Amino acid sequence: MCETCCVREREFWQLLEEVFGRVYGRSLSRDQRLTKLHDMTVVEALAAGCEPRVVWNVLCDQMDIPDTRRWGKDHNAPPLPAA
Length: 83
Hints:
Elements: H1 9-20, H2 22-31, H3 42-47, H4 52-62, H5 67-70
Helix pairs in contact: 1-2
Keywords: Kinase, Transferase
Protein name: 4-diphosphocytidyl-2-C-methyl-D-erythritol kinase
GO molecular function: kinase activity
């Protein structure tokens, strides 16, 4: 269903809080359905084994977060997973 892990989940949660704020980010992770990931929430997608980078990009796309804000202040976009 989802790709294997490449970005650490810990980094995912750090970015979520940095970009969306702690309270709103945690709420999004439980409530926002990700249409490109079979309508799973962030929490469900990560539990199902989806790669955190994929979940992050899907969430940011769905929430219209531009690339300039997507990776936070001190983060670089991780490399794309191997095809």
